[in-house]
C-alpha cells in the first residue's frame, strides 16, 4: 500500500513540476506590466519587477523606447524542495514614448523599489543611451 501511495505522490510531483515550468515559460513570454506617466519635465515609466536585484536589471533607452530586461533567481530554502517552479526567471518589457516626445537620456534614472517596481524617469529633450539602475534603500 505504501508503495502505491509513494508512486502517486511521485506522479503528482512530476505533474506539478511540468505545469510549473510551463507557467514560468508563459510568464517569460508575456511583457512586463507597465504604466507610462508624463509631467511637464519628464516621462515616468513604471514596470512591475518582482523579486529582482539592481544588478539583475538592464534598462536601455533608444529611439523613444524604454526596454527593460530582468533576470531573477529563485532562493533556496533549507529543508524544502521545489515542487512548483512557477515563476519565470527571464522577464522583459518595453514602452514606446509618444511620437512627439522630445526627451534626453542624460539625467535619466531608474529606481528599483522595495515593493517590486522599477521606476524609469526620462527628462524631456532627445537622444539615446543606457540608463543606470539604483536600488531603493531602507
Quick structural gist:
The protein is α+β, with helices and mostly antiparallel strands. It contains 1 helix and 9 strands. 20% of the residues lie in helices and 36% in strands.
Q: Could you name the ranges where pLDDT drops below 50 across 5 or more consecutive residues?
A: none
Distance between the termini: 54 Å
Report the order of strands and helices. Answer: HEEEEEEEEE
- What is the overall shape? elongated
Question: How would you characterize this protein structure?
Answer:
This protein has 138 residues and is of the alpha+beta class. The chain has a single domain, classed as Immunoglobulin-like (Sandwich). It has one helix and nine strands; from the N terminus they run αβββββββββ. It has one helix spanning 2-29, and strands spanning 34-38, 42-48, 57-62, 65-71, 90-96, 109-112, 117-123, 129-131, 133-135. Strands 1-2-7-6-9 form a five-stranded mixed sheet, with no helix packed on it. β6 (109-112) and β7 (117-123) form a beta hairpin. The mean pLDDT is 79.
Features:
Molecular chaperone IbpA, HSP20 family; A-crystallin/Hsp20_dom; five-stranded mixed β-sheet; about 140 residues; HSP20-like_chaperone; alpha+beta; Immunoglobulin-like; 1 helix; about 35% strand
